[in-house]
Every structure is written in C-alpha cells, then in structure tokens.
Amino acid sequence: MEQANYHLHVNNVSKSFPGVKVLDNVSFTLKKGEVRAFLGENGAGKSTLMKILMGMYTPDSGEILFEGKPIHFTNPKQALDNGISMIHQELNPIPDMSVADNVFLNRETRIPGTPFRDKRDVERRTQALLDQFKMNINPKSLVRSLTIAQTQMIEIIKAVSCNARLVIMDEPTSSLDGDETEKLFSIIKELKKRDVAVIYITHRLEEIYRVADSVTILCDGRITGNAGINDLTEDQIIARMVGRELAELYPKVDANIGEVVLEVKGLTKPGVFEDVNFQLRKGEMLGFAGLVGAGRSEIMRAVFGLDWFESGEIFIEGKKTIIKNAEAAINNGIAMLPEDRKDWGLIGCRSILENASLASLRRYRRAFLDKKMERDEVIACVKSLTLKYTDINNNVFSLSGGNQQKVVLGKWLLTNPRILIVDEPTRGVDVGAKAEIHKILSTLASKGMAIIIISSDMPEIIGMCDRILVVSSGRITREVHRDEIIRKEVTQENILESALKEVAV
Asked: CB-based burial of residue 268 (10 Å sphere; 0-12 exposed, 13-18 middle, 19+ buried)?
C-alpha cells in the first residue's frame, strides 16, 4: 500500500531511562481511519511510546513519520498543532474553570479588535459539541461539579474538537458505564468515517473486538504481536501481554458463606438513593452492578460514614450501629477502597510506607510513632499482596497502577477489617494485575472476610461474586444468585439490559 494511505510509521524506536530499557526497537504502522488497539501490562512501555508521539519524550533511536513526514516534537502543543491529540487516563482538567473553558483552553476565539476572549462564542461552540454527543451538561458548569464519568466524556470531546487526524485514547472507558461507552464507540465510528486514525489503549479486552481493526501488543518494551483483530484469540492476546499463560482472570474460590455480618435497612437519601435493603454474610462476595450514577458508590459512602443519609438503619453482627464518619466505620471493622485511588486513595507526595500505614497510625503510636513496628507490618502486608517495588520509601506514584491499587488495599487490610468494600477495584490496571487483585479478594473471602464489590466491569462482577444486586436510580431492583450464572440463566447483557430498562421507566 502506498505511503500516502498511512497516517503513522513508527520504525525501530527505542528509549532507555537510567538502568532500564523501556522500548526496544518498536515498529508499527497506522492507516487512515484505522483503529489500532494497544495492549500490554503496566510497565510494558505503552505510555512511554505515547509520550514520544506527543513530544513529551525524545526517542534514543528510530524514526517516526506522520503523514509521510518525519516528526520531532518537543512538546504536546507541537503535536496538537500538527494534528495529534491525546486523551490521558489520569484526567487533568482545571476543576474551577467551566466546561467550555476546559474544552477550548488555549484555543479561545477573541472579540474582534480586542485581546479579550469571546466567552459567548466558546460557550456556543461547546454547547454544539455537547448536543452532538448527546450530553446533558451546561457548558457554564464548573468541571468540579461533574462526575468522573462526565469529566472523562468532556476530555474525549476536547480531544475530538481539535480536528486531529490522529487521536490517542488512553483507557477512555475506565470511568464510563455501558451507555456512555456506546456513545464513545459511536464517536470512534464517526472518526473512522472522517479518515481519522485512533490508537486505543485499554485493559478491557472485550472492548477491542468491538472497536479495533488491529492490535499491537507490548511486553517488557518489545512488540510481541502486530496483527488484525480477528487473527488473535483473547487467550493468545493475554499470553503475549504477560509473557506467560494466564489460566484464569477470575479465580473465584468457593467460600463457606456464614452468618450475616452487615445488614442495611431502609437506607434513604432523597434524590440519591431510597429504601435500600440488603444483607452481607461472612465469606460472601456481594456485587453491586448498575450504570455509573445509579447510586452504588453513594450507598456505600453512606454505609462507611462519608456521606449523610436521612433515614435507615445499619446493623453489624446483629447490633444496630451508628456510623457518623470513617473513623467510626474503621472502629466497627469496615474498610472501603475508593473509586478514584489518585484523588481519594493515595497521597501523592508521600511514600509507599506512609500511604500503606496511614489508616493504622493509632496502632503504632506509643510516646512516639513506633517506626520499626510500622515498617515491619507494612512490609509484611505488601509482601503478601505481591507488591512490586524497589524501596518502601519511594514515592507511591512511582508504582504502576496495579501496584498503587495494592498499596490502597494494603492500607485497609492493615486495619484488620471484617467487612471490605471495594469500589472499581481493577479500574485502570492491566490484565495481570487484575488477575492478582481478584485472587487476593477471593483468598480474603475464603478466610471469612465479607466483601462488597462495586464495579462497572460486568465480567468482573459475574466472575467474582456470589450474589449480585442491580442498582438503578438509587434503588436495588434485582438480585442475582451465582447458581443462576453457572446455569447460564443470567448473562452480563441481560443484567445491563435490566439496569437500562429500569432507568428508562
């Protein structure tokens, strides 16, 4: 095929940092209108390669051609000016600016004859984009007021609005529910019609067969697969990603389900959730499924004492318990991993050690902090979680996403909980780390811990849970038992259909 039909040629690109070679002679091509999935574990080199394309890093060797011309970008603005945009996994909007100002940041129109930006024009253009993508958001709203999913969609709209000829999407559906994901897929189809090429980075393998034309797989900085999407099975892709066979992504261990440890009766917060009733038993993994915004996380935040509720009762091991804050929840044996580990689970300026011990500092307090006890317990805990790190005093954000999540999990396990709530436990982690986290949760349940899993990943909910509660518009509308799933009477499709139908009523 003639070179003119290609948007991108990456030829033998290598990149090293002190002590490690991150990319080793990486090569691939991308045609006009092609969607190429980019897969690999965290640390495989995907982000480094994308940062090279965006001008954030300079390659040590190799050549990159965009539309037939060599590129040597030194900053992201040059990449954007030349037709390459990127949606980053870690969202970095300006929260105290409006949606419109975020979408057209540094691209505002000016009032003719003045140095002032034309605010009305920016808001009008943003509204047109929001209407195009069927998003009911006021362009004047502050980004701070949006949900994570809405913020993700704004970032997607921002990238598409630049009229880029190559769009890099890094985990674009990590915060989206099924309906929003379908909107994204429609956007991608429209980009293909315009001959816009897309690099689609994801850990959700089920998505790539729907959206991608081809796939590139990285393992330890080397290409282990360049193929058409239908030329590799999911098992083959996983094996090439992790460099080994991955027997089971959802290693559910059957546990002995015991007595009720948590019971919620009539929990109500008007406009958010209403008349929520459920029980959780010892050794049980209870899933909360539903669309983003259905109220799943809000219910659990209320149980954990982070949010108020108007009425209802919480019982722990049969005893009515008042939980007014997170400290009370911890004292009653409840732990909760938040949905957003970056903003709510970790302190970025602190070490692995400090983050892991944060919820248990009272236990290490004597006249002074018993640092030896703190260090010994943290190291023992993270070792049991197979955390990969070089120094326990390193900054926590030096770790991969999967290992950051293990630090958050370790922080809460050090509080010795009886009840563990995990909100999107494998969001933004690679397939190998996902399997490891699933194994950890399954092992904890087999030892008697009661676990609640909130997840937008339906295969995760179905693969790991003993029971599933479907939440829609703040109400529990359906209950699914594991034997129904085993008998294939229930699938992820009809669970999602149920949630969507309930929302539409």
From this structure: middle
- For residues 348 and 397, the answer to whether their CB atoms sit within 8 Å is yes
Q: What is the pTM of this model?
A: 0.65
Distance CA 474, CA 489 (A): 25
User: What are the tokens at 31?
Assistant: 């045609």
Query: Measuring CA to CA, how many Å separate 470 from each of 294, 326, 482?
Result: 9, 25, 14
For residue 19, the model assigns a pLDDT of: 65
Contacts of 102 (CB under 8 A, 6+ apart): 93, 94, 143, 154, 158
Take residue 382 and report the two structure tokens written for it.
Answer: 């993270």
The pLDDT score that the predictor gives to residue 437 is 92
State how far the Cα of 221 lies from the Cα of 502, in Å rounded to an integer: 46
Non-local (6+) Cβ contacts of 490 within 8 A are 462, 480, 484
Residues 94, 105: contact at Cβ < 8 Å?
Answer: yes
Q: Which helix (H) or strand (E) covers residue 164, if one does?
A: none
Q: Which of 453, 456, 350 minimizes the C-alpha distance to 407?
A: 350
Label residue 293 left, alpha or beta by phi (over 0 means left) and psi (-120 to 50 means alpha). left
CA distance 36 to 336: 36
Residue ranges of E strands in 161-296? 166-170, 197-201, 214-219, 222-228, 260-269, 273-281, 285-289
Tokens of 101: 């100002």
Which residues contact residue 311 at a Cβ distance below 8 angstroms, ignoring those fewer than 6 apart?
Answer: 266, 267, 268
Q: Name beta bridge partners: 8.
A: 30, 66
Indicate the DSSP class of residue 53.
Answer: H
Q: What is the pLDDT of residues 131-180, one digit of tens each?
A: 877 788 899 999 888 877 788 778 878 877 887 899 998 888 876 777 77
Q: How far is CA 225 from CA 27, 58, 93, 242, in A?
A: 11, 24, 34, 12
Phi, psi of 199 (to 5 degrees): -100, 120
